[in-house]
Structures are given as structure tokens and as C-alpha cells.
Design a protein that fits this description.
Helix content is about 65%, strand content about 0%. With about 230 residues, it is mainly alpha-helical.
């Protein structure tokens, strides 16, 4: 007679779920995919999470508050879309702000190169630290309208608008160089940072690029593009 299969740590279930959702997206992924990734029966997964939605909640919680996983009562109940968004919003509100960008909304306090450099450093560090969570949210948001509205419209577009507003005010004052289109310039900065801080890590042709080289080069090039050179 076969012995009982030992219980798996909840974090292991959450990690497997995250891998599956990242690989297949939310709609295409199934509980059976997670059970296969874990080497468990389909039914065994339901002893940890009552549904696919609960597995996504676990996957997100592992990246947001990993210390909270082991205290969960299992099986984790099915969350509403609003509860999934609230989990991410709590993380965004508590620890993912961009204080340098927020501070730059007021009057310039020092050299504009230092101000813009701090914004670039902050955005780079934020994306680099949170790239796994951002990837999971982006991958699943296409299939979850509430998550898409929150992530793409409320948070990401809000951040781009804040950066564009900063560029507009500093350009009008003459502190930054004029560009053909401010919203495109804001998107250029964010997408450049995102590629080097996040997406290049999935590009096998970029393995020779080091973290320090990418971070310093992105900063240098953004400043060179936007900060006017002193007149001789």
C-alpha cells in the first residue's frame, strides 16, 4: 500500500502556479498544469487552493508578502477580482511609490541633471526589484479586465502621466531640452529602463551585459538626451 504523499509547503504551490501563469497566461493555464508542474494529482492541488483564481492569489502573494504564505489556512478560498486587485494595490500603496518623481513635481531644488538622474535611478531600481511581480501581473492582466484596468490604466498610465508632466514643466522652463512629443519621451524613458532592468534578462543575446553597466549607461544616455549641454 502506498504511503500518504507528504504535504508540500504553500510557497512551493505558489511558486509552481507563478511559473505556469507566466508561461501560459491566465486564461490558457489550468489547475491541471499546476498539478503537473508539482507532480501532484489534480485533486491534491485543491487541498491547497479551491480554484485557479486562488492559485493566482497565492502566486501574487508569494511575490508581494512571502512571509504571509505559511500562515494561510488551506485550501485558500476563491478570491473575487476586487480582492486580487486589492492585494496588488496594497503593495503599490505601501512600498512601491516613486518619491523622487513625486518630489520633482514641485519647484526645482538643485541641478536638473541630479533631479532627472534621481528619477531614472528610482525607476530603474523599482523595475529591477519588482520585475517578477510586474511580469506576472502583465501576463495575467490581458485575461482579467479588473486587473488590466488597475495595472495598465490606473497605475502605469498614471506614472507615465506624472513623468510627462515633469518633463513638460522642466522643458517649458528651459531646464530640459525640447523634444518633438512629451508623452512619447516619457514612454521612451520608461521603456528603455524596463528593457535593460527587466526584459534583457530574458534575452539570451544580452547575457554579456552586466547589471552595473546597464544601469549606469541608461542613466548616462537619458541625461545626455534631455539635459542641455552648458554653452561654451
Amino acid at each position: 500500500m502506498r504511503g500518504r504523499v507528504p504535504a508540500r509547503p504553500v510557497g512551493e504551490i505558489a511558486e509552481a502556479a507563478a511559473r505556469v501563469f507566466l508561461a501560459k497566461g491566465y486564461q490558457a493555464a489550468g489547475v491541471s498544469d499546476v498539478s503537473a508542474a508539482l507532480g501532484l494529482s489534480h485533486g491534491a492541488v485543491y487541498t491547497y487552493a479551491k480554484s485557479k483564481e486562488a492559485l493566482l492569489y497565492l502566486a501574487l502573494l508569494r511575490l508581494i508578502r512571502p512571509d504571509a504564505l505559511e500562515a494561510l489556512a488551506t485550501p485558500v478560498p476563491t478570491p473575487t477580482p476586487e480582492e486580487i486587485v486589492a492585494l496588488i494595490d496594497g503593495w503599490a500603496t505601501d512600498g512601491s511609490g516613486l518619491p523622487a518623481l513625486a518630489a520633482a513635481a514641485g519647484r526645482r531644488q538643485g541641478p536638473v541633471a541630479d533631479e532627472l538622474g534621481a528619477i531614472v535611478d528610482e525607476l530603474y531600481g523599482f523595475i529591477e526589484r519588482n520585475r517578477h511581480l510586474l511580469a506576472l501581473v502583465e501576463r495575467c492582466a490581458a485575461d482579467l479586465p479588473e486587473l488590466a484596468q488597475y495595472y495598465f490604466v490606473q497605475r502605469r498610465r498614471g506614472m507615465l502621466d506624472q513623468l510627462a508632466d515633469y518633463l513638460t514643466r522642466r522643458t517649458r522652463s528651459g531646464a530640459l531640452a525640447a523634444v518633438p512629443d512629451i508623452p512619447a519621451a516619457a514612454r521612451f524613458i520608461v521603456e528603455t529602463i524596463a528593457w535593460f532592468a527587466w526584459h534583457r534578462l530574458g534575452d539570451p543575446d544580452s547575457a554579456h551585459l552586466t547589471d552595473d553597466a546597464c544601469r549606469s549607461t541608461v542613466r548616462h544616455l537619458v541625461l545626455a538626451a534631455f539635459v542641455p549641454r552648458p554653452s561654451s
